[in-house]
Design a protein that fits this description.
2 domains, Ubiquitin-like (UB roll), 8 helices, disordered C terminus
């Protein structure tokens, strides 16, 4: 396990646990903290794959610790480290503030129109609702951001989670900020920077975040034009639209 705390050097530390057929990575972490190393820091809450707070990198791949049985990881040593592309606070705990900042940068909050009724509904069996079914399953765990190699090279790239959220809003006929949101999405540092490598889907816990969502989002302005015209400034580098810096602790 990769250990680090402020003022100390990072280090790999070995632990041994007795594991049963159903023992998960999270079970092992809890056992280590309670019985071997009370100073070990990690996050968890629901323990059933609903909150996403236990996200870590296991054997090089982003996983939810609570949904990863040790028995599925094969023989030999298992490595656990914090998520990539997030500042590390201590051990396996990362600062999620950059994740939230990227959500804000793409306008991830629903914006009702002036005349929109508070109880306006979109039918669950409508084409509009079905188009975003997979996208709304995202729980904001950050695994896809950790896996994204473009995030590693461009600190202004919103990342797959923020683009996924933007997709759900751009397809929502009730949202009043779609034209404004295109100014960010169609800048040089947003949709255009997704290379389609699909690292954000390469793992069992990232299935609700299909990479094809970005490709479909690129098609929306063409399909919706002229109802949602693309801003004339879309090709300019909108440096104020997304954060200028994002601490990447790539050595951890």
């Amino acid at each position: 396990m990769l250990r680090w705390s402020p003022g100390a050097d990072e280090r790999w530390q070995d632990y041994a646990v007795e594991a049963g057929a159903d023992t998960t990575v999270l079970d092992a972490l809890v056992e280590i903290q309670r019985g071997q190393d009370p100073g070990l820091a990690f996050r968890y809450a629901c323990r059933v794959g609903m909150c996403g707070s236990c996200g870590v990198v296991v054997n090089g791949r982003e996983r939810w610790a609570c949904r990863t049985p040790l028995s599925t990881l094969g023989p030999g040593r298992i490595t656990v480290r914090p998520l990539y592309h997030f500042p590390v606070l201590r051990d396996l705990v990362v600062d999620m503030a950059p994740f939230t900042a990227r959500m804000r940068a793409v306008g991830a909050a629903f914006t009702p129109g002036d005349g929109e009724r508070r109880d306006a509904r979109i039918s669950g069996d409508s084409a509009e609702r079905q188009e975003i079914d997979g996208a709304i399953e995202c729980i904001g765990c950050g695994l896809c951001v950790s896996a994204c190699t473009i995030v590693a090279h461009n600190a202004r790239f919103p990342g797959p989670a923020a683009l996924n959220r933007a997709f759900t809003l751009q397809r929502d006929s009730r949202d009043a900020a779609r034209s404004t949101r295109w100014g960010v999405l169609l800048s040089e540092d947003a949709l255009a920077r997704c290379h389609g490598q699909a690292n954000c889907t390469d793992g069992p816990d990232m299935a609700p975040m299909p990479q094809s969502r970005d490709a479909r989002l690129r098609d929306v302005p063409l399909r919706d034009f002229p109802r949602s015209p693309v801003p004339a400034t879309r090709r300019s580098r909108d440096r104020a639209a997304v954060p200028r810096s994002w601490s990447r602790v790539d050595s951890r």
